[in-house]
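REQUEST FORM: STRUCTURE PREDICTION
Request ID: SP-0412
Submitted by: Lab K.M.
Chain count: 1
Length (residues): 416
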Amino acid sequence: MNSNFHSVILKDDLCIGCTNCMRKCPTKAIRVRNGKARITEIKCIDCGECIRRCPEHAKDSLSDSINDTTPFKYKIALPAPSFYSQFGRENKPGKILAALKSVGFDDVFEVTRAADVYTEYTKNIIEVSSVKPLLSSSCPVIVRLIRVRFPNLINHILPIESPMEIAANIARNKACKELNLSPSDIGIFFISPCPSKVTSVKNPIGSKNSSVDGVISFKEIHPLIVRNLELNINPLSYYLSGRGIGWAKAGGETFSLGIEDYICVDGIENVINILDDIEDGRLTGIIFAELLSCTNGCVGGVLAMESPFIAKNRIRRLAEKHLSDIEKQSYGLDDKEVFFQEEITPIKNNVFGYDVIEAMKMMSECIRIQKQLPRLDCGACGSPSCRTMAEDIALGQTTMEDCMVLFKQRFEEKPL
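STATUS: Completed
RESULT:
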């Protein structure tokens, strides 16, 4: 696996240096220099906010294509619960799954099944854990955000693999057993609404390797599904769990737990605010937090095709239709197929390096520079705030001359 991999990429030729992406980056990973945006990889969490905000489409996400499935003898698609919401109310899940299989897969295994498995393990941990609140590990953006900005909260993260990974393990085990296949013969591809899942497969957290072989975005596969939906194909049976399906929208995970003392927060800026509260001890009486990078949950993923509000409504209707209890299934999973096998560690990003004396000198210089800046955080200099500009100047990455406010003041004060 590539520990330096990021799915979010910049298309230099399309970037006009407008600073929209820089202003909305939750980890301040973007600068605009010489008229082009630049991403600081160590700070990037692949949330896709820059993709969402860029009016020039200069940000994009790497993902796999259907052609990447060809090397495998047996191919399995793992559709996210939100996948059902992308094709109109008239197309029922069974027909959507059949259209997906017809794209070139031998089998389809719904991630809704693994969502229910995740729920049961979460309930067991909540009963015995002294850590409050526990934080869901299902959104990889949030796990990466905590590593970068809130390392003191790492021990609050549930030590459970995401439903995507659990589903991949179940699907592979099932195919090996029923078809007498070697694990390496099986290619498992997650169908994703967000770039962070691509990163979590190529650069996993909590495990050395992902159980998923590739990630195909909604955006990539949508036209192929639409084409197949027009064909006369027999629908597949699907997993009738309203709770599992409900995971596609914000609040679905916490609803499936059946607990009262929880919060559900969606939208990356809102999540950052609540993590600040948790870190500072201002959030009490809460035992579990469902934190989602995208507004409305996974239906709001940046690689989704449908309006998140329409998609959320479709998921709500579908989940409510199948809310009756279903028989719990035992998939014979080992602990290593469910729980993280490696410690989650902070992303060390000491701005001024790790030489203490040198870092203190740089910090003093940063404070001196910051006092000279207007503290308007306008972003016109190409840094997200006056504080970060002071850091950038101290590091030699820019100069005071790039402050547009000071430049204007000097121009106005210059005698005619």
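NOTES: The longest helix spans residues 111-128.
Reviewed by: T.R.
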